[in-house]
Amino acid sequence: MRSALEIAHGVRHGMLSAVAVTEQCLAALEERAGPLVAVTRVLSERARDEARRVDAMVARGEDPGPLAGVPYGVKDLFDVAGIATSAGSAIFDDAPAAGRDAEAVERLRAAGGVLVATLNMDEFAYGFATINARHGTTRNPHDPSRLAGGSSGGSAAMVAAGLMPFSLGSDTNGSVRVPASLCGLYGLKPTHGALPLEGVFPFAESFDDVGPFTGSIADMVLLWEVLTGGPASAAPSSLKVARLGGRFRDNADPAQLAAMDSIARAMDSAAAPLVIPDIARARSAAFVITACEGGRLHRETLARAAMSYDPQVRDRLLAGALLPEAIYEEAQAFRARYKAPVLDLIADHDVLLAPATPCTAPSVADPRIEIDGAMSAARADLGIHTQAITFLGLPSLAVPLRRPGQLPLGLQLIGRPGCEGTLFAFAKRLEDEGFIGVTVPEAFPAGALAGSRGIDA
């Protein structure tokens, strides 16, 4: 599929029909999406209505907006008017339909975007693998025997497979950056609170953020401008870049380390990797805060219908609900003390380089990864490098290393709060210089996906 920019340009200038683009997308979903186990609902009627509206505006000589006729999907925790928000769970099957779209969806619609589907996720966004007890496990388009990552795995898989030019996910502790890395995409965790969260089912409000997936940095900038209502911050003319060391190098793929070192050399940065102190403690505190806030949110539902939850999610939520308040307060107090000295430490750097995941996508049959020399559950530990960055509230852009013929693997470009524009500018430079870029998956078009579960109509 074309990029969002290309589609919108064609529709706005009468070279493409939004209806035709939408029909092409819906046909591709019907023919090719099922085996990826990435779609939970196809919104055909709504999509056609929105596409007709865009074409009608063009016919009247009106500008439908910067996303004119661009099809997209959203993680199944965004409110969509007229349907119940499931958050990846059967528990809300009988919940009342949402009365309006989530604010982010409203902004995309106002810009001419066409919503075509809701997308698979870990139940209540609690996991890094998109292993969903109700819908099934989302597959990686680059190798369907492997995980797409999570918890926004359905959103990543659809863009990576070329079935839509962008999608929305949410990132609490890495739920956009992890699948972006494993599926070979751009994925943004913004400065905390920078993108609208109204109408998005929460997980841990201290950390939750909306995040887009795109196949190019140009599309990411376009999405940022639509969702924020203005341009990104200006980037300095000369960028100071540092590699993160310590725990960020302990559990990293050699290809990530080599790429980080090469980028540093290209930027004339000979400094030793920067070590952020107490990073393991920061991740532990993030675990505590996440568990407590998630457990509190679900306490009443757990008391009423605990057996309706995915067992792995249920047990983690129960454990969080039972944590003493004093532990939560201690973790939040540590966070408050921790952030200022770390921000001082990184103040002289515009971009920090770190791995996005510790490895390429693990297999669906054995969803484990190696952490500190021992095998660990991917569902819990794929976010080892993203969670501590969330804890600090910093913006982080996952970018795909250019790896033709190999499984995708990503880096994080991490910036100071409010400096997303710097990350976008640096990513554009890396894209232009050939360090990063999206690779079209070989496995998916070759038809190697037979036998997986399909979508719920």
TrEMBL record:
InterPro entries, per database record: Amidase, Amidase_dom, AS_sf, Carboxybiuret_hydro_AtzE
Domain Amidase: 21-423
Pfam assignment, any one: Amidase
SUPFAM superfamilies named in the record: Amidase signature (AS) enzymes
GO molecular function: catalytic activity
UniProt cross-references to PANTHER family, sorted A to Z: GLUTAMYL-TRNA(GLN) AMIDOTRANSFERASE, TRANSAMIDASE
Protein name: AtzE family amidohydrolase
Biological source species: Novosphingobium aureum
Lineage: Bacteria, Pseudomonadati, Pseudomonadota, Alphaproteobacteria, Sphingomonadales
